[in-house]
Amino acid sequence: MSLYLVEGKDEVLRRRARVPSGQVAEAWADHEVAGAFWLGEESKRLLDADGPPLSPRLTLPDESVPIFYGPRLCDVDSLPREESVRTRALSSRGMAVAWITLDRFGERTMYEPASMHDPVFYLRRVGAAPPTSGVSSARAPKP
Predict the structure, then answer these.
(1) pLDDT for 32-47, tens place per residue?
(2) Among residues 131, 130, 129, 111, which one has the least CA distance to residue 121?
(3) Nearest to 3 by CA among 103, 88, 98, 123
(4) Which stretches of the chain are assigned E, i.e. beta strand?
(5) How many other C-beta atoms can be found within 10 angstroms of the C-beta atom of residue 121?
(6) What is the pTM of this model?
(7) In this structure, what DSSP letter does residue 41 have?
(8) Are the beta carbons of 40 and 86 closer than 8 angstroms?
(9) Angstrom distances, CA of residue 118 to CA of 4, 100, 113, 114
C-alpha cells in the first residue's frame, strides 16, 4: 500500500464530489504545498475512477509513517482507517503517529488543538458512532 502527494486542488475536489454515495475519499490538504493533497491507496483508487489517474508528486510506502497504538485503546469501532491517520500526519509533516484513547491512569485523553498545524489531533472513522466519552487523539511527532 502507498501514500500519495497529488497536486491539482480543483481536480481533486471535483472528483471527491463525484465519489459514489456510501464511499469516502479522504484528501488531506498539505500544509506546505498549496493545492496539494495527501491520499491513501483506497482514496486514490476512488478518485482515479473518475478520469485519468492522478499523477503523484511523491509516493511513499505506508509503513514509512508508523502508527503506534497505546495499550488502552477503547471505542475501536470508531478508529479511522490507517491510511487516513497516516495521510493526516503527512499533511503537516508528521513522521509517525501514536494513537491514544486512554492515558496511563485510564482517563480519556483530552486535548484542544490550536490549529491544523498542531501535532495532536482528533480523528475518527467517517460515519462511526461517537466514542462513549470524550474523543480519541493521535500525535504526529515532527522530525
Answers:
(1) 999 999 999 999 999 9
(2) 111
(3) 88
(4) 2-7, 27-29, 36-40, 56-61, 67-69, 97-100, 120-122, 137-139
(5) 21
(6) 0.80
(7) H
(8) yes
(9) 22, 16, 6, 6
